[in-house]
Amino acid sequence: MSQTISSLLGRGHQNNFKLTEKQKSIMIGSDDSCRKGFICSETYLAPFHCRIYLQHDKIHGWKTFIQEKAMNPQRYVTMVNKDRLKMRETRWLWDGEEVQIGRGDNLENLLSFVFQNDLVRGNKMKMIEVPKCLRERFNNCQDDIGFGAHSVIHRAFETKLGETRECVCKVVTLTKKVSKECFEKLCQEPKLLDSLNHSNIIKVLGYHIGNNPDRLLIWQEKMYCDLEKYFQREQIINPKKWYNISFQVLDALKYLHDKGIVHRDIKPENIMWTNTNFSVLKLIDFGLAKNYKNEIERDNEQVGTPLYIPPEIYRASFTEINDLYKPPVDIWAFGILSFRFLTGQNPFFEKEKVDINAVRDKVLKEGISKVPLMERRINERIIELIIEQLLDYDPKSRVTANEVMGILTNLQKLFE
Ligand SMILES: Nc1ncnc2c1ncn2[C@@H]1O[C@H](COP(=O)(O)OP(=O)(O)OP(=O)(O)O)[C@@H](O)[C@H]1O
Asked: Which Pfam families does the UniProt record give (predicted)?
């Protein structure tokens, strides 16, 4: 990466500042030494009020954090999206979030900034080639905003009826890593998505399969952030939020299952919030989805992500496996996701990425432990019972998306 820039843009005053790979951290406060860092001599800031810094990791690339530094957090406040940071608390800052700092007894006069995180490769936005027939409608930029096992997701723009809006372009290229067989299967994804219409399923805006074919381009609506990233920041999801997430995911699953489609890769990375409100989410990545009623689509391979694969698939022989890819597979995966989100723990392993054989042994030999929820409120007890049914070892008696939706609808009041 040639240049990484995160910036805080001040509201109503001149104090904008940037973090780069050279300048990875700044202190904000009223002490003289902070001025070098950037902000400001405002007297209502603590001498060392907060620190904003960049950190790199292999999964997310550059991330920006804010850390509360005031010695007296009762007197001084540091807030992210109006939520006050505790003493010494560190928070991962996301694009579009608002930072406010100042005195606790003068909340009317907080300094306010909007965080912008621009991962810029070079300074100019470079365009990548779009097939001639689609050039009027789509523009692709070179910056990539996501990576999958088979694809790169680029920033893009769609111009329709005179209006231009941001979208993304998923690019799959035939390579050593993506075999011809795999590529051909992935080409089914946009066709399948095109036939679906549900508010919690990603919409395809357009697609193009090259002539050879060796390249697949899928333009989709732009999402904000995936549930894995959200979970890593929140650590534990409370029952109310779980309810909100579950209702939407299960509604999308019910829709798919009624149509005879099984997603086969339900996991937090494949569920994304549409925007910074964290209210609406959508299922993405239908690369492994299939119509289980369609005999032509028979394949006898094990697919999915180890931690989310159910016992019947781990147990299945080569000839049985195709007939076992049915809706209960998605339900189990959603059960694992719920277990992780509500308890902060994996049912099988501490770490997310583990060897598939080790996970299989644990799933088959050890079974699921009881859901270790924190408190014993009535809604937690209900969630515990639901998770036990989502993680039923027998796919035939495992609860369906429709059944859980029924329970959740009846118990809405408990989660308000
Ligand atoms: N519509 C979108 N808007 C914003 N980011 C997206 C969008 N679609 C995908 N991404 C990002 O790109 C990542 C990879 O996308 P996707 O899962 O579709 O690719 P894939 O190659 O099928 O991945 P895998 O097979 O590893 O699950 C996602 O986890 C997400 O972070």
From this structure: Pkinase
